[in-house]
Design the sequence.
């Protein structure tokens, strides 16, 4: 990720701490940037998501290899820990998506890339015939756990961890039934 994109993401997240997404202008976000070709605020949301992906890759560069279930748990919890560092801002973005679902649809390809990254970091194969069902499953799991995270006010995200573990255990049982 380029330094100017990191700067844009950080500036937008900082502005979101005190303002809603609707009240922040593109010019406010880009005020310190030169020669930037960003057309709209949706592009900023994509940059913010890629920034979280960048941090996830950096933080998990030494992830210990174990079962896919355990690795997926670790990767998702790390992602949530990253989001937690920007909790107020991320919650405002989520709320904005509820008000403007068409914007979420525009950002969806970026989220799918994030899901594929999560799968890759978890050593889950995202190629072949089963790729689409796997991607959809991890995507739904991610959305479910984001809603849990959004309402989890515990410092260590205990409710979120418990819920994620339960979802993964149920998913594991379902996979064993299918086999």
Sequence:
């Amino acid at each position: 990720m380029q330094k100017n994109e990191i700067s844009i993401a950080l500036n937008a997240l900082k502005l979101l701490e005190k303002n809603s997404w609707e009240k922040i202008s593109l010019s406010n976000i880009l005020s310190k940037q030169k020669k930037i070709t960003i057309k709209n605020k949706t592009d900023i949301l994509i940059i913010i998501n890629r920034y979280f992906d960048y941090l996830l890759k950096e933080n998990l560069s030494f992830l210990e290899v174990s079962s896919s279930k355990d690795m997926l748990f670790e990767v998702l919890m790390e992602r949530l820990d990253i989001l937690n560092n920007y909790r107020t801002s991320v919650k405002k973005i989520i709320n904005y998506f509820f008000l403007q679902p068409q914007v979420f649809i525009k950002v969806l390809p970026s989220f799918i890339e994030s899901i594929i990254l999560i799968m890759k970091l978890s050593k889950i194969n995202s190629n072949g015939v089963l790729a689409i069902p796997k991607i959809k499953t991890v995507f739904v799991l991610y959305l479910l756990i984001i809603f849990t995270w959004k309402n989890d006010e515990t410092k260590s995200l205990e409710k979120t961890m418990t819920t994620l573990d339960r979802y993964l255990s149920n998913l594991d049982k379902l996979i064993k039934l299918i086999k």
Remarks:
- Residues 52 and 58 are 10 Å apart (CA to CA).
- The mean pLDDT is 90.
- The chain is about 75% helix and 0% strand.
